[in-house]
Please model this.
Amino acid sequence: MSAPEPAPSPAARSDSLARADVLDELEALADSAASTRASLSTRAVDLERHLAARLGPLAFFLFIVVTISAPLAYLAMGVKTIQTRATANAELVAELIREEALQRPVLWRYDAGKLVRHIDLQARHQSIVRIDLTDDQGELIELGLEPPSAEDRELLWASAPIPLEPDLEAGRVWVGFTAREVERQALLVLLGFAALGALLAGVMYALPLTAIVEAEARIARSRRALEHLNVTLEHQVAVRSSQLSEALDEVRDKEQRLRELSGRAVALQEAERRSLSRELHDSAGQALTAVRINLQLLVAMTEGAGHQAARDLAARTMDLADATLEEIRRVVDALAPAVLDDLGLRGAVERQCDDFSERTGVDVDYILEQLDEPGVDTGVETAAYRIVQESLTNVARHAEAERVEIHLRRADLGTPSDRIVIDIDDDGRGFDVEEVRRKGRRGLEGMRERVELLGGRIEIAAMPGAGSSIHVELPVKPEDE
Model:
């Protein structure tokens, strides 16, 4: 026989889940209403003004880029083309003068003016204004032309050397040119692209503003619709909040009643166990003791020849009575350990630990603190003793441990949080907590249910190969008292 375990409490767990669901739903509705009110109370931003302030600089930038990019490119290309033509003319003149200088090393300077004027007439371009020569000293050679004026000094110049030998120059040909025609044409291009840039900038500025005005109108309509929906939502939230508050209060009341019923059930269960224990001890135990005494008398009365079979039957019956008495003592101890009544919680735990260590050879180190103080409910003392007993039983059956440490103490004595705290650690092979929970091992589940019925809490930590630990906290008085 074994002691009946406390019945599971599915109602407590389902009520706890229902309470959590109600709280979650209430918080979600409150958050939704708060966010809606916050969004509607924010002042609307003038999107048109905001966008116009940002589109203005962008439109101006587009106008500037479109206006000047193509004319600048045209001007640069035109100046480069004229410069290339001037450089080609300078090289042509330098080559002709070189040939003349090689044929007439001294007199070529006197005919250079005629040669330059001839080439100027043949290769004249409207952008090329003047051709001059300088000697190897950089001095201007008289060619019979008008001397350079102030305007000629503002010209753009291209030059080419007049080589006589690889390391000797007879002088240098200078061709002056102007970019006024290219600048005039670039100005015309600038005017055309300015008009194009103004058109593009205007389109870029106007189209988004038109779209944003229409969007603002739609937003205004949507805002009015949202305000109407918000009023409806606030009313619905208020109604639902009231309903959920009532439901939450009802759940709390049920949970409190369930705790009270669970506490009473534990108290009644312990009382019933003690009653059964006394009844078995007083009636069945005494009856079996009387039977054993009668059997001893029967053995004594049948001494002599011819009564051996009767004596043997009486001896076997006495052995059976002894075994039955031992089983009754075990059941009585399981129902209501008499050692608690005789020695109290401290003495009962000390005897349990010493007996376990002597029976199994496992070292048990225990620390017991403030357990002699009054005020602990009988059911709580029994539960604490049973938890220690069940833990040691599990160690003997499964852990293969060499050492067990037990710390049992009274914490926060005399305060509303006055409680019994139990810590049990072993160095055994450990186990997978989740796997054991799935398998529903009765010993651990029985401890958990016993603790929860008394309003306490239990934590089980273990790892394969690393031992296990159990932490339990029990209020000294059940919550219904």
